Amino acid sequence: MSDLAALDATAQAALVRSGEASPRELVQAAVDRAQQVDGQLNAIIHPRYELALEEAAAEPVGDAPFAGVPFVVKDLGAEVAGLPQTRGSRLFADDVSYADSELVRRYRSAGLIILGTTNTPELGLNASTEPALNGPTRNPHGLDHSAGGSSGGTAAAVAAGIVPLGHGNDGGGSIRIPSSACGLFGLKPSRGRVSAHPAAKLLA
Prior knowledge:
The chain is α+β, with helices and mostly antiparallel strands and 204 residues long. Helix content is 30%, strand content 11%. It is built from six helices and five strands, in the order ααβαβαβββαα. It has a three-stranded mixed β-sheet with strand order 1-3-2, sandwiched between helices. A two-stranded antiparallel sheet has the order 4-5. Strand 2 (70-74), helix 4 and strand 3 form a beta-alpha-beta unit. Helix 2 (23-41) runs antiparallel to helix 3 and helix 5 (152-159) packs parallel to helix 6. The radius of gyration is 16 Å and the shape is globular.
């Protein structure tokens, strides 16, 4: 694992603000790490690495709290423009998001650079991330173990040092279970604190 991969999101953002690292350097390190380990993990199912590098190169540091920090979004409950939104289901395998959801727009406003979307069990209805559509996500601490679910792809990406933090959602343990399985800290916000727009409500 590179030195950058060992840093949390606030430390990576501090490097950008101080000029010790550029957003592109952070994103390139994340892409390199993903290409090194994700073939075994199957955490990121819809990558957008080239676009992420282009965005990082054009990213003004400004006052954004996480300017230049690489990030992933779960393939359920949040939409990234131009990427599939499969919800882990063969039923939605051909769906492509035409716009960012409000939550993703806010992530971008905070300066986060989205590397891609992460694996989830079908419709988030399992405590292990093993959808028929995309295959199982493995635990970075032991490839013969589950990463948990339903935010298992995000948890595996963070635990493997690809990104320092990522998006998940949780109705019955979908952040808490994979966080525990992968040795992470997972935050489940109170209901009503996170916008579901353009959906009427969050699934979890």
